[in-house]
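Troubleshooting entry. Yesterday's outputs looked truncated, so today I'm pasting the complete records for two proteins to confirm everything comes through intact. If either block looks cut off, that's the bug. Protein one:
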Amino acid sequence: MVSRLNPYLTFDGDAREAMEFYREVFGGSLTLSTFGEFGLEGTPHAERIMHGMLESGSGFTLMGGDLPPGAEFSAGSNFAVALSGDDDAELRGYWEKLSDGGSVSVPLEKQMWGDVYGACTDRFGVPWMVDIGEGSAGGGEQG
């Protein structure tokens, strides 16, 4: 898979509604995964969206999901730029450069969904998410 760069939006419990709205706007294929599918079944977060991805026929990709348990929503900081793909060396190279001089909120390491993922804010205050998949087209999940 070719590496991709796209916006990643964060929601406070209404990611499903928002991502379905964007599908109505842009068309395309929408995939949604819940927190319950990744070990939080039976919790208040079980039906919330852990990761959603909309791929339009025009070539747009938009990802988004609800905040993970314990995270606090902050309007104005509810986005990140996502880098995803399966080229480990390429994506680790981007990670090293983006995180240099910035702050790391999630170290780049293997996550519960199987990908290597990390989140950082670069030295200019831009939030980034890097997801290195194992040949999957998903990526960008929040950890």
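Protein two, checking that the full record survives here as well:
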Amino acid sequence: MSNVKVCSLGSGSKGNATLIQFDQSIILVDSGFSSKELESRLTTLELRPADINAILVTHEHSDHFNGVPVFSNKFNIPVWMSPGTSLHPRADKIRSLNLINIHDSFELAGIQILPVAVPHDSREACQFVFHNDNYRIGILTDLGHVTQHVISCFAECDALLLEFNHDITMLMQGNYPASLKARVGGNLGHLNNQQALNFLHAINKSRLKLLAAMHLSEENNCPELVKNIIQQAELEKTTRVILADQQYGFEWVRIE
């Protein structure tokens, strides 16, 4: 039995944090939650901060970055991010800060990591594919559109955590000011449901064991719309589908 697992500690505009485990190594991707809140959410999984080997940061927006400096320093956990992300003024507070080239693969705690540059309204955003000889887990959120580079990097995943941020009609008819609608729905914003579906049609889904819908807007999307559109993705019958939410994320899922 494999010991390759993934879980979400919460996903949405109020805070994001994801755990990736390969064997005994655990990597935390982002933390938009305060250090205290993150500790509380780890406790529900019977995890301690000391169980985390490293923290990766996708970009500097507060719902991904907010809790990282305090949590990292409090528990002496090293942090990796792009040079652009490190320009955030609070990045200077991180005592164990390491920079990555988002165009080169690297290894952390025995896990192979492929950074993937994505179009988003931040300084140097990236997402990640984690892999060993047998399994590939992809995290793909916070991008305004799907590039060919993104498709090629995420084309062969066993588990995929994919953004379904908004329904375009709900966004356009909703209460956001025009400037925010333009930002969220633009080429440097967030994936809408149809874009996520188009991406799924563009990749090889034959080995996909888990699809997790991530970063759902609480105002401009709803779970039923996401479930309905995923039904159009022609997934294998063996593919497990999960919708992550803001409060609870989703519990550990073993990939095998």
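Both blocks look complete. Sanity check on protein two: Residues 35-44 form the longest helix (10 residues).
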